[in-house]
Amino acid sequence: MTPWFARGAEMAAIFMVGDGLIGLAQPRRHVDLWKRDALGTEAVVAPFVDRPGRRRLYAVAQIAAGLWLASRQRAR
Questions:
Q1: Which superkingdom heads the taxonomic lineage of this protein's source (predicted)?
Q2: Which are the contacts of 32, defined by CB distance < 8 A and separation ≥ 6?
Q3: Domain ranges of the chain
């Protein structure tokens, strides 16, 4: 694995964990921010509109996946 690929994976993991934490703590506000005029993300957040429990469940999965991805990275 190249250093650039590993760095990209690390950045993706950081995004996943951070986005997951925001979605877990403030699911309604977070979804409301992205449900209109958001360059195509409207379709991505549509399943979570008015469903904070669903967004929280997704957030837990997102955090877990981000932590797993980060754990797979190794410095060379």
A1: Bacteria
A2: none
A3: 3-71
Both structure tokens of 37: 């005029």
Answer with the residue of higher pLDDT: 5 or 67.
Answer: 67
- Tens digit of pLDDT for each residue in 33-70? 999 998 888 999 999 999 999 999 999 999 999 999 99
Q: Which string of DSSP letters, residue by residue, matches the chain?
A: --HHHHHHHHHHHHHHHHHHHHHHH-HHHHHHHHSSSSTTTHHHHGGGTT-HHHHHHHHHHHHHHHHHHHHT----
Question: Which residue shows structure tokens 């797993």?
Answer: 68
